[in-house]
Amino acid sequence: MFHLENCSKKSPLKSGPQITLTVIISTTAPCPSHLPLSIYPPGSALCFLSSRFHRTPYYASLFSRPVALKALASSADFRGASVVGAKSGGGIGWRTKAAVADTGMATEKGEGKKVSVFDSEEDLAVALAKYIADLSDKVSKTKSSFTVVLSGGCLIKLLRKLVEPPYIDSVDWSTWHVFWLDERVVPKDHVDSNYKLAFDGFLSKVPILPGNVYSINDALSAEGAADDYEICVKHLVKSNVIATSESGLPKFDLMLLGMGPDGHVASLFPGHPLLKEKEKWVTFIKDSPKPPPERITFTFPVINASAHIALVILGTAGEAGPVHAALGNSQNSDVLPIQMVSPAGELAWFLDKEAASKL
Ligand SMILES: O=C(O)[C@H](O)[C@@H](O)[C@H](O)[C@H](O)COP(=O)(O)O
């Protein structure tokens, strides 16, 4: 199942307590948090190095100190809204008077749906940080974990205000558990990796516990990585880290979704059979129209079981069309993936004015 080794090393200080460093290297256990606590010697400092985190900078840094870490296995063993207000004349389709006066953004409130349009990317980033921090605060007061699912794309740079004061200090990062909505099947240090994107732009700047970051096993095939990720999520549902919906699906506290110019969300592309997947929680694609071709992705049943979804969209390459299809009075016959985002919980749209330009 897993290899366990205790490596004791004398503290570099002449006096003071000695610690035992227990290194868990798991080749099969999908994630650290479901390992039984009873296996750890009392007083141990624990480091987890599972195949999932192989080549993960976070974990590598844990071992950069002079600790007698004996190689336990060869690398070969490591596999792994009704519109409120009148049309404005200024380019943005619609605004509430109060919101314009206050923040320069437009707001639409419908049943569990809120649409906000921002004059600039900077304004969007400021509002997104407040939204996430407020939600983190609210959820963390009611339970011990705040489960957040990240996308790739421009989302990560739009999280930049969250890593600055006041939020860097005020958010209770210890409750955060981070997942990926979709991931490219590439090594974690590859330029196409959504893990790398998130690590460089967000995770490396906030004190989220490394053991609460659930990246894919990049040593597996697309199919294997999808199965492995689903097993990981199932363990976390079982151990109540992730809440459960009434229908037994994982109910993430917050999914942060981007959208491509073709209307795709996650790695669920227009016209693809995966849009109809009802059984799997996590699936894989080998013919993604957006490179790279091999990816894993959460499916619509899981996406729509979320407690909160934030759709974060900049209109840089034709996103206004799909946004109009989803929020306007578009008559298109083919349903785009973005139109299938319909969570049981709350849906908040964060759009820049270009993305909202056809509304
Ligand atoms: O891996 C991916 O490709 C992303 O996770 C993807 O789902 C992304 O969120 C959208 O493509 C939007 O990307 P942009 O924000 O770059 O338009």
UniProtKB/TrEMBL annotation:
Start and end residues of each Glucosamine/galactosamine-6-phosphate isomerase domain: 120-349
Gene Ontology cellular-component annotations: cytoplasm
Gene Ontology biological-process annotations: carbohydrate metabolic process; pentose-phosphate shunt
Enzyme Commission (EC) number: 3.1.1.31
Alphabetical UniProt keywords: Hydrolase
Molecular function in Gene Ontology: 6-phosphogluconolactonase activity
Superkingdom: Eukaryota
Entry keyword annotation includes Cytoplasm: no
This protein's record includes keyword Hydrolase: yes
Entry-linked InterPro entries: 6-phosphogluconolactonase_DevB, 6PGL, Glc/Gal-6P_isomerase, NagB/RpiA_transferase-like
UniProt pathway annotation: Carbohydrate degradation; pentose phosphate pathway; D-ribulose 5-phosphate from D-glucose 6-phosphate (oxidative stage): step 2/3
Reactions performed catalytically: 6-phospho-D-glucono-1,5-lactone + H2O = 6-phospho-D-gluconate + H(+)
Family named by the database record: Belongs to the glucosamine/galactosamine-6-phosphate isomerase family. 6-phosphogluconolactonase subfamily.
Name by which UniProt lists this protein: 6-phosphogluconolactonase
